[in-house]
Design a protein that fits this description.
mainly alpha, 71% helix, 111 residues
Length: 111
């Protein structure tokens, strides 16, 4: 994959992310804040963007979305890494959701 192809894919992901984020915010703001891991201020900005503004923002060379967690424990819970029993998957996913929700609560309380 050459650099131009990579940049095009980043722009496509950015636009898809922006469109999804705006849709989520407009459908249920409280859920969107949690699912996207963003503050109310950021949600307000995204909600107010016109299609032309979204295209402009999405056309950058930097990926706009990012992983919401950098904690190995959360990754292990989500992937059930080193966990043999499939029945534990839902408990691990629930635990990971709780950890991510607490990370979201901590991030929004600092703003």
């Amino acid at each position: 994959m050459n650099t131009e192809q990579l940049m095009q894919e980043i722009r496509e992901v950015n636009l898809s992310y922006m469109m999804l984020a705006q849709h989520l915010i407009r459908a249920d703001k409280a859920q969107a804040l949690y699912r996207l891991g963003i503050s109310e201020d950021v949600a307000g900005v995204i909600d107010s963007l016109t299609p032309a503004q979204m295209l402009k923002v999405a056309s950058g060379a930097t990926l706009m979305s990012r992983f919401r967690f950098d904690d190995e424990m959360v990754w292990n819970l989500l992937t059930s890494h080193n966990k043999p029993a499939a029945t534990e998957d839902s408990a691990h996913a629930l635990h990971a959701s709780i950890v991510m929700a607490s990370n979201f609560a901590e991030a929004t309380s600092r703003q």
